Amino acid sequence: MRKAPAAHSPMLEVKGVSKQFGARSPWVLKDLNLRLCRGEGVVIKGRSGSGKSTLLNIIGGLEPPTKGAVLFHNEDISQYNEGQLAAFRNKHIGFCFQDAFMQRHLTVLENVMLPLLLRGANTSQAIKQGKVLLEKLGLHAHASKLPGALSGGEAQRAALGRALIGEPELLLADEPTGNLDESTALDIMNLILDYKEQSGAGLILITHDTLPFEHNLRHFILADGVLEPLSN
User: Fold this and answer.
1) Which residues, in sequence order, are bridge partners of residue 96?
2) In Å, what is the CA distance from 214 to each residue of 75, 94, 98, 193, 197?
3) pTM for this one?
4) Domain 12-101+154-230 in CATH: superfamily?
5) Residues 130-173: pLDDT tens digits?
6) Which residue ranges make up each domain of the chain?
7) Residue 42: pLDDT band by 50, 70, 90 thresholds?
8) Which of 11, 21, 98, 199 has CA atoms 20 to 30 A from the CA of 2?
């Protein structure tokens, strides 16, 4: 995995982002601001329904803000069209959700390779990279299986592999351990944090897990549509 030099200018800027679903609906997010440089990590906590996933979807280009802007390397992705957003996500963003969302008709290896193939990568090279990553994730023996044959923990490891194979600059993880037992959850969390440390990628993590104030993580709470820092 690539190791990028540290940068002082922010990779990501969330500037005055607000969100409501319909003109008469309440504001889910209210004038949010956030800056993230390469190698930095942010942990966001909050009650269910507080807008954490909505914020992550806006940052990842899956949902437009009602107001404000999301800048990635100084480019406002909130102004991109659907084609530009798809290309942006596939090139720069790794998503890891609470559910694995595997393509059931594809093998584990094919699922992991998919982001590279969508970029137009050579198939043999994608297979090679996928196998190396599955070996690291402890899934090499499951490469030819369909996702339905995996346990919950194995499926989440495979989904993480799919998120990481393109070596994303920004990893967005939305309750990635929410459906896992404590031991498996710890393994997945360590893999995510190791990737951040080794690659220099940015990380935004939504979790209810208790995490220490380390790994260069900044902790926030989202409540009543407002994002506030938590001090250690």
Assistant:
1) 173
2) 30, 22, 23, 10, 11
3) 0.90
4) P-loop containing nucleotide triphosphate hydrolases (3.40.50.300)
5) 999 999 899 999 999 999 999 988 999 999 999 999 999 999 99
6) 12-101+154-230
7) very high
8) 98
